[in-house]
Amino acid sequence: xxxxxRTQLSELADYASGNARLDTPAALRQRGTRRGRRRRGxxxxxxxxxxxxxxxxIGIAHPGVTRPVGIARPGATGPDTARAPAxxxxxxxxxxxxxxxxxAKAGLTKAKVAAxxxxxxTTAQISALAAATAQLTQQDKNALTIARIAAGYLARYLxxxxxxxxxxxxxxxxxxxxxxxxxxxxAQLAALSRx
Amino acid sequence: xxxxxxxxxxxATTSRRLVGQLFAMIGDLHEAxxxxxxxxxxxxxxxxxxxxYHDREAWIRTVAYRISVNAWSKARNRLTAHHRASRHAEQPxxxxxxxxxxxxxxxxxxxQRRVIVLHHLAGLxxxxxxxxxxxxxxxxxxxxxxxxxxxxxxxxxxxxxxxPRTHLTGHSRxxxxxx
Lengths: 195, 179
Prior knowledge:
The structure holds two protein chains of two kinds. By secondary structure, chain A is mainly alpha-helical. Chain A has helices spanning about 1-20, 25-55, 95-105, 110-120, 125-140, 145-155, 160-170, 175-180, 185-195. Chain A is rod-shaped, with a radius of gyration of 28 Å. Residues about 55-90 of chain A have low confidence and may be disordered. Chain B contains nine helices and three strands, in the order αααααβααααββ. In chain B, a hairpin with a 2-residue loop joins strand 2 (about 165-170) and strand 3 (about 170-175). The radius of gyration of chain B is 17 Å and the shape is globular.
């Protein structure tokens, strides 16, 4: 029985190997390489996109806390809270001539910026918002994935007050971009919020 | 960059043998082809690592088998086989004896079928089968005994003279007598 089974199985295997339509090894290699390239390309694109769109908002994380510190909610004043990068006039709460020009060109009044500052926006949040909105306006409907990720990421870390302020002020994309370009320091934003 | 020559040589020396073993395990030639080719593609993607394996053939066989038993893969392969079948009207013929064996193998549980093929066709020892399937040696022995016992009555007419040729098409098999 065992020998007979072995013989019959061998015949079955011979049948299969004789009739199987297998691709050449070169074709399989090509498929494998193509597939690997696609995966690597996709991952790289997604990574670059996230970094480009949302990276500006990713600060130094609190130890053990996943929430980016640069996007801390208003009132969070821990000693390790990451501050927005200081501009040339970081020590002063006064806006520089360049900042005033940029904001004025975009039609942003001091009251409007102050309203945003009062709601607790940080420089990092403004930069991330600008990057996300820029991508949303540049790309077509089918290529919004990265911008959507960035927007979703940003929305998650905006307080209700910040979201309300954004809607109330009805900022245009160009105005958000101008805000990011002006790169207001934390001290400047704080001064504006007190005004 | 992995060495293509090594891979090509490995493919040339093992693919035909493995497709036979997989066909006996799965019972469908097209599925066996697809699963095997997919396993080789995955092997190529990891070739620098797999190249150093003691038994690369066992790796391919295990991966191909897992691919074939994966439900999603099965559904996809079925679709692929269906499309291919519609493109190629001619199907390889199979003798009634072999068809009987295929049917008998498909009637026994998959783990028993796998063990039968690995032992009687691939020539692996109980310990080697245990290592490849991840089952204890005792379980392998039991599956082998039960599989043989189950196959006994189903393949009793093996040695009858060859009969009419039969067409093997995808998952539905019909015996078609040639005039």
